[in-house]
From TrEMBL:
The active site is at E27, H100. Signal peptide: none annotated. Homodimer which binds Holliday junction (HJ) DNA. The HJ becomes 2-fold symmetrical on binding to RuvC with unstacked arms; it has a different conformation from HJ DNA in complex with RuvA. In the full resolvosome a probable DNA-RuvA(4)-RuvB(12)-RuvC(2) complex forms which resolves the HJ. Its EC number is 3.1.21.10. Its main location: cytoplasm. This is Crossover junction endodeoxyribonuclease RuvC. GO terms for molecular function: crossover junction DNA endonuclease activity; DNA binding; magnesium ion binding. Mg(2+) 1 binds at H100. The gene is ruvC. Belongs to the RuvC family. It comes from the Bacteria. One of its GO terms (biological process) is DNA recombination.
Length: 143
């Protein structure tokens, strides 16, 4: 397993070194019935997180439900709905294959939406604070 984790780390670092992303989206682990599979996934996810940190990337972590909701409008969306909506949102010619590619792209779409909404909320908060501190100025600027 240590060789595989090192390989995951190296491959992710190669992608980071080639494309220089500032942010990365990753899916949080859903612990189902298969504990052994969940532990292996957690190890691989850890290697990915370390690669992102060493590459200077900010990481956004999202639950499967958050990703589905961001892409398909409902956290209960099935694989086909997520794949189809990912294709539509990204204007792709065909559905991303294999399924893991669609999942990764959907996580990226979720992250983009989340970051955009966070920035809007920050600007709104700054406007409210500015109005509270300087109500006369804010009123003059709005006219």
């Amino acid at each position: 397993m240590d060789v595989r984790l090192h390989s995951i780390y190296k491959e992710i670092r190669q992608v980071i070194d080639r494309y220089h992303p500032s942010e990365v989206a990753i899916e949080q682990i859903f612990f189902g019935q298969n504990t052994k599979s969940a532990i292996a996934t957690a190890h691989a996810r850890g290697a990915a997180l370390v690669a992102c940190a060493c590459g200077g990337c900010t990481v956004g972590e999202y639950t499967p439900m958050q990703i589905k909701k961001a892409v398909a409008g409902t956290g209960a969306a099935d694989k086909h709905q997520v794949t189809t909506m990912t294709r539509i949102l990204l204007a792709l010619d065909h559905d991303p294959k294999p399924d893991h590619c669609a999942d990764a792209l959907a996580a990226a779409v979720c992250h983009a939406h989340t970051v955009q909404n966070d920035r809007r909320a920050q600007r709104a908060h700054e406007a409210v604070v500015g109005f509270q501190r300087y109500p006369g100025e804010a009123l003059e600027r709005s006219m």
